Amino acid sequence: VHPNVSQGCQGGCATCSDYNGCLSCKPRLFFVLERIGMKQIGVCLSSCPSGYYGTRYPDINKCAKCKADCDTCFTRNFCTKCKSGFYLYSGKCLEKCPDGLEANNHTMECTSIVHCETSEWSPWSPCMKKGKTCGFKRGNEVRVREIIQHPSARGNPCPATSESRKCIVQRKRCQKEGKGKKNREEKRKKSNKDESKETRQEGKGRAARRQNREQRENNNKTQPKKKKAPNKEQDLAPADTAH
């Protein structure tokens, strides 16, 4: 061991020196060389920094540099994120995507081209003109469909989502909204009037019956009782016997 090597190191180092920093790391930590000016210093980290990938060996775990166009990588030959200006495809960083793929500037990856997809056409609508279904002979009917899948940048664009065609129907008159409303209002008023009239008549009938009943009761109270008429047969019987 070099005289400058120390066993009492800080920051996860197993052995270190004043000039070169860490020379070896504690178990499970990764050894990596960091450049400071013209000098390289060894450090021990729990995971490799950006631009490096980790390799584990029985005696030491090291961080090795990714390729120049790769920002992060799993191994030297498999990149997981590319540097600016490159697109990721199958672990590689490319300046241009292969045929059949397109560059996604949001994820910086080469992705499959997506074409537009739509649903089936809906049934044709009723024949109409200016929003009405009456008062005309020639009108238009329409049908629509929905977009199921929007296209990617290089995908086929979506077709029209609505169609219109001429139609002919048997002309029929439109009921005037004002007149129909007026008729409904008049019917309602008439119905209310009839109900009110029936209610008044029924009330008058009850009042008249109550008044007649009270009148009969008053007459019975004020009228003197009639004397019972004598029985003519009883009055004549004694006279006939005397004669």
Automatic annotation (TrEMBL):
Q: Which domain of life is it from?
A: Eukaryota
Asked whether the keyword Glycoprotein is assigned, the reply is yes
Main subcellular location of this protein, as a coarse class: secreted
- Which of UniProt's keywords are assigned here? Disulfide bond, Glycoprotein, Heparin-binding, Repeat, Secreted, Sensory transduction, Signal, Wnt signaling pathway
Q: Which CDD domains match?
A: FU
Q: Where is this region: Disordered?
A: 171-243
Q: Which GO terms describe its cellular component?
A: extracellular region
Q: Which ranges carry the R-spondin Fu-CRD domain? A: 11-110
Which InterPro entries does the entry link to?
Furin_repeat, Growth_fac_rcpt_cys_sf, R-spondin, Rspo_Fu-CRD_dom, TSP1_rpt, TSP1_rpt_sf, TSP1_spondin_dom
Single annotated GO MF: signaling receptor binding
Q: What's an example GO BP annotation here?
A: positive regulation of non-canonical Wnt signaling pathway
Subcellular location field? Secreted
Bias (Basic and acidic residues):
175-219
Question: Domain Spondin-like TSP1, which positions?
Answer: 116-170
Q: How does it assemble?
A: Interacts with the extracellular domain of FZD8 and LRP6. It however does not form a ternary complex with FZD8 and LRP6. Interacts with WNT1. Binds heparin. Interacts with LGR4, LGR5 and LGR6.
| Main function | Activator of the canonical Wnt signaling pathway by acting as a ligand for LGR4-6 receptors, which acts as a key regulator of angiogenesis. Upon binding to LGR4-6 (LGR4, LGR5 or LGR6), LGR4-6 associate with phosphorylated LRP6 and frizzled receptors that are activated by extracellular Wnt receptors, triggering the canonical Wnt signaling pathway to increase expression of target genes. Also regulates the canonical Wnt/beta-catenin-dependent pathway and non-canonical Wnt signaling by acting as an inhibitor of ZNRF3, an important regulator of the Wnt signaling pathway.
The UniProt entry's sequence similarity note says: Belongs to the R-spondin family.
Protein name (record): R-spondin-3
Gene that produces this protein: Rspo3
